[in-house]
Amino acid sequence: MKISFAKKHFIGIASVVTMLLIWKIMAIYFDSSIIVPHPEDTLITVIKLMSNAGFLKIASATIIRGLVGFIISAILGIAIGILAGINTEFNTFISPILVTIRSIPVIALILLALIWFNSGTVPIFIAMLTMFPFICTNVVEGIRSVDQDLIEMARFYRISKQKIIFEVYIPAIIPFIISGTSSAMGIGWRAIIIGEVLSQPRYGIGTSMQSAQIFLNVEAVIAWTLIAILISSVFEKIIRWCEVKMVTWK
Amino acid sequence: MGLEIKNLNKSYDGINLFRDFNLSFPEETITCILGPSGCGKTTLLNIIGKITVPDSCEFQGFDNKLFSYIFQEARLLPWKSVQGNIEFVMRSDLSASERHEQASRFIKIVNLEGFAGYYPSRLSGGMRQRVSIARAFACHSDIILMDEPLKGLDLALKQNMIRWFSEIWKADRRTVIFVTHDVDEALLFGKEIVVLSKLPAQIVAHEKIEIPAENRQLEDPFFKKLKQKLVKALDA
Fold first, then answer.
1. Is A149's CB within 8 Å of B75's CB?
2. Domain of residue A18, residue span
3. What are the Cα distances from residue A230, in Å, to A204, A226, A236?
4. Whether residue A105 sits in one domain with residue A93
5. Is B208 exposed, middle or buried, given 0-12, 13-18 or 19+ CB atoms closer than 10 A?
6. Are residues A26 and A53 in the same domain?
7. Could you tell me if A92 and A3 lie in one domain?
8. What are the CA-CA distances from residue B118 to residues B9, B66, B83 (Å)?
9. Same domain, yes or no: A91 and A155
10. In this complex, which of A150, A156, A159 lies closest to B49 when CB atoms are compared?
11. Which of residues 187 through 216 in chain B touch A, CB cutoff 8 A?
């Protein structure tokens, strides 16, 4: 069943209002800003944090780490994904590696990364290892889903291998790359912030959350969480915008 | 000089599809190969197009020939527009403007002017197949192979498709080899009609029609009589 745009919008707002309502009820029930602060107080803290002179440094440090991790994962994921999609032997070789990376608990990776890297690199490394398998697996799936009749047609028309890769395979896997990016980014932001909490780089949302937690400033912890959600949803919107612009043919 | 297949032998899974089979195709003509389902028509087309390797065969006149193919399904790239799909198969040594100009010319012939920027998902089945016809002609080739491209279309649309095809074909008169199991399609389309028997395939009838495709009416006594003859040959 199709829902109209206005109705969808209304249901979305209703969902947010419900969450705020539950939050408010809990805040009234516990009646302690150390356990559950009031939503309006937290909102004021968000605005205060965002208008603070150091905010841009903190937020941009996390965003840059996320983007660096994403770019490395995307390059590796797309290249290895294409190879694995085209070559069955390589896919058999790479599959256990991907499964292993996916199965390693994030905390184990962080603990090891803390030993291996400096505090600023740890979140990037974690982001990369959590995002890369998603992108890679989606690219493999994309390549596998390419209509073989189209490949046969291209070969029959004597189209070069290079042109087949760039004009048949790559456009066919773009929707899969976008969907992989969306899942990877969702998990990636969480991993970066966990990495920052534990590695404590000089600037970072995770670092600020940890500092707030030490001083039992629950308002600030939740406020930074809301800022992290906001950043994640902005990137999700950017991904959806790219999808609309790049996959115009569906 | 015509094109000839001599002593074609091909078996698949122990089944003899062709045994010492011979067939010649006049150049610059539409030859229609008619046969019951499963008689090896598509295999024959694939052998001619060098997709399938025969057990043994002597090809005459096929050296250095380039092929275009019109498949049962249009096989268009969904992410390319009508124009893009046609330009995709064109020679890479042509400049972008030459490609654009030639593709536009073929789009016009198949009556799809105004749809050049449309993606295949926005076109009807008949329109997509017209793009595939335009693509086959836009590709630099000597022979066009067609594998039941009108399958599943209703008679009125078939007649229109044949009209568009004839229109585009008249411009450069490429050699066309067309396989079908539908007698009406063969009558509407072929200048030469070759009827194949059940396996192992043998030629059981060979007819010529001089009436131009655009003037053919299946209700005419000539076509009615010819249809009876072809149906009888098919059932033999």
1. yes
2. 1-31
3. 15, 6, 10
4. yes
5. exposed
6. no
7. no
8. 44, 29, 8
9. yes
10. A156
11. none
Regarding whether A223 and A107 lie in a shared domain, the answer is yes
Instruction: For residue A121, give the nearest of A179, A173, A192, A36 by alpha carbon.
Output: A192
A164 and A204 fall within a common domain: yes
Task: Tell me if A156 and B78 make a contact (CB, 8 A cut-off).
Answer: no
Give pLDDT tens digits for B83-118.
Answer: 999 999 998 888 889 999 989 988 988 888 899 999
Residues of A in contact with B119 (CB under 8 A): 248-249
Same domain, A6 and A120: no
Q: Is residue B2 over pLDDT 70?
A: yes
Q: What is the pLDDT of residues A48-81, one digit of tens each?
A: 999 988 899 999 999 999 999 999 999 999 999 9
- For the stretch A13-36, pLDDT in tens is 999 999 999 999 999 999 888 889
Contact A158 B66 (CB under 8 A): yes
Task: Indicate whether A233 and A191 sit together in one domain.
Answer: yes
State pLDDT tens for residues A62-71. 999 999 999 9
pLDDT tens digits along B126-170:
889 889 988 998 898 889 999 988 877 777 777 777 877 887 788
State the ipTM, two decimals: 0.83
DSSP code at position A7: H
**Shortest alpha-carbon distance between residue A139 and chain B (Å):** 17
For residue A41, the domain's CATH number is 1.10.3720.10
Q: What pLDDT score does A159 carry?
A: 92
Under DSSP, the state recorded for A83 is H
Domains contained in chain A, number: 2
Give Cα separations from B92 to A26, A163, A223, B46, B144 (angstroms): 68, 10, 58, 25, 20
